[in-house]
Amino acid sequence: xxxxxxxxxxxxxxxxxxxxxxxxxxxxxxxxxxxxxxxxxxxxxxxxxxxxxxxxxxxxxxxxxxxxxxxxxxxxxxxxxxxxxxxxxxxxxxxxxxxxxxxxxxxxxxxxxxxxxxxxxxxxxxxxxxxxxxxxxxxxxxxxxxxxxxxxxxxxxxxxxxxxxxxxxxxxxxxxxxxxxxxxxxxxxxxxxxxxxxxxxxxxxxxx
Length: 208
What we know:
The protein is of the alpha/beta class. The chain is built from 8 helices and 5 strands, in the order βαβααβαββαααα.
């Protein structure tokens, strides 16, 4: 029998969607043959938080998959920074490249989008929240878990390879487990990155 694999899923929101939480706790089922156990947690984003504080939270650093609300940062005191879940996803990938991020939105999304829309009873057309998330979220979670397991296997193989530099292996291992960031961004670098996102977004909006 395969060893048990623990997958840590963290849901971050300033106002938790009860039905999404319930789905993740009670209804999301992984393939039992892979011997996977889901370790689910939540982090409530508050007015004192910002993206830099969020990046330093152990619950974030040690997660394998993060679900984050797209509009999470809209009520921040700094109105110049319209920081979204989509932007957090990209920045997190630079600092902790092994953590997978799924953005959840109140808005409708297209089939091509990787953003998952939250369940709305008024617009449900008779389907339940379980059916909604089975159709829109389950496949994304399943694929992310598959990638995580593949990366874990590759990391084990790297550790067995005597020709790989030990310091590099140690860095990769710590990054994989959220003990050390691969790229230590300073505040200025993060702010500059966000500024670039804003410029790109403005250019895109002007093209519409």
